[in-house]
Amino acid sequence: MTIGIWILGDQLWADQAALASAANAPVIFIESHSHSTQRPYHRQKLVLVWSAMRHFAEELKAQGRAVTYQMATDFAPPLRQWIEQENITELRVMEPADRPFSRLLKTLQLPCPLTLVPNNHFLWSADEFKQWADGRNSLLMESFYREGRKRYGILIEGSPKKPKPVGGQWNYDKENRKPPKKGINPPAPQWFKPDAITQQVMASVAAVDTFGDLDSFGWAVTRTQALAVLDYFIHVRLATFGPYQDAMVTGEDTLWHALLSPYLNIGLLHPLEVIQAAERAYHEDDVPLNSVEGFIRQVLGWREYMRGLYTYVDEDYPSGNYFDHHQPLPEFFWTGDTPMNCLHQSIDQAKRTGYNHHIQRLMILSNFALIAGLSPQAVESWFHAAFIDAYDWVMQTNVIGMGLFADGGVLATKPYAASANYINRMSDYCKGCQYNPKVRTGDDACPFNYFYWDFLARHRNKLQHQGRMNFILKNLDKMSQEEYKAVRDNATQWRQRN
443 with 434: CB under 8 angstroms? Predict the structure, then answer.
């Protein structure tokens, strides 16, 4: 009996379950170029995944593994050929994180059995999340996060029977919402000069007709580099990460953010080692608790919660459209050419780097898509294509649920809809914009303002059932009929133009 291991492009970790299940088993990697064209994926994402795959293959070869690396149009032909050549009697694959790829595996007609090994790239398995979720009236992330803290003993003190959060609070979010100060000077992110392997990938990707710039590529493509980024974040950026994690500043693409999600999502880093590194910084280096807790909440809380929820919801979840929004995606989402400076800055940055931080994604891109009435499916597909850390399990819950409330409240307790006031408070984008963030109607009015009020008015019947929205909805009653009509007219005219 000969076992063979197929390593997928988001499973690049020496201790991943399939690879660890069979020492010295031959291994195959496949770059499927047809799979990579299912969406106009960002060029830097293609380079990251393919270069990391090639580097990991070389590392396994250096360890004495028999490694086959194939570049092909599709997965099935090279798999069949390799299975026959190596006399493979059982093919093992670590369970994919994404449902579409799991469905693809079922369609492969292979000359040997295919065994799925449980995925160990996450802290919670799908079964464990289901056990936590079943029977609950609501699936609040905060409850899940606290359970995770207790389960893994992260920032916990007291006895095992009565665990308490270090510092007396579970959540320091209120300390992590500071608007940007003038003259802030965040440390430069750690980038890497592309080596020969990466340059070779870049040359091939440059010819692909897809989204995003390529010349500035500097992402880590090996575990050693990813660990260096983690170390740099922990010792240089983490202390100031918390207070300004929601801020947005022109010319500062990354501020104090970790830039670790691409590496977590392809397996170069494991979430537990990242969480424990941050916890050590609190205990050993006196890094402020609000920064450490805020970062850990993103990984142990949101990341695990989003993936768990993805495995828990029905497969028709991606088709959700609670507000019945069907406005097509504007062309400027691909070009960045829009006079709305906040959108221009965020999209231009995504084009250049494949990256926006969570508030740019939630409170600018998703917020605009929600209040303007864009199709949730079109928006989710764009997010999936545009970002270097995007995968199906990441974007379905984050965009359909969190960003657009298209699931009707399965995930969030209210829609994350906001006017220009939020953007003006948390960024400097409004200072460089032709629109006035304090005006609701007219040629100078910020579209976020008239779309926000139009959104509340159009969906008042549904929104009033979201308890946290009733106070805001009362403000509609204070609006004059003339202003209400002007708001609707501005919103309608914008949609007609776009």
Answer: no
Q: For residue 467, what pLDDT is reported? A: 67
Per-residue pLDDT reduced to its tens digit, 462-489: 998 876 788 888 888 889 999 999 999 9
Buried b (16+ CB within 10 A) or exposed e, 122-160: bbbebeebeebbeeeeebebeebbbebbeebebbbeeee
CATH of the domain at 274: 1.25.40.80
Task: Report pLDDT for 37.
Answer: 87
Regarding whether 131 and 106 lie in a shared domain, the answer is no
Q: Is the domain of 295 the same as that of 345?
A: no
Residue 125, amino acid:
S
Task: Name the region of 169 (left: φ>0; alpha: ψ -120 to 50; beta: rest).
Answer: beta
CB atoms inside a 10 Å sphere around CB 55: 22
Distance of alpha carbon 226 from alpha carbon 190, whole angstroms: 10
* 138 plus 271 within the same structural domain: yes
Q: Rounded mean pLDDT of the chain?
A: 96
Same domain, 369 and 297: no
- Say whether pLDDT at 14 is over 90: yes
pLDDT at 183: 81
Domain limits for position 78: 3-117
Looking from the CA of 356 toward its CB, the CA atoms found within 13 Å total 26
Of 256, 289, 312, the residue at which a domain comes to its end is: 312
Domains held by the chain: number: 3
What's the pLDDT tens digit per position in 246-300?
Answer: 999 999 999 999 999 999 999 999 999 999 999 999 999 999 999 999 999 999 9
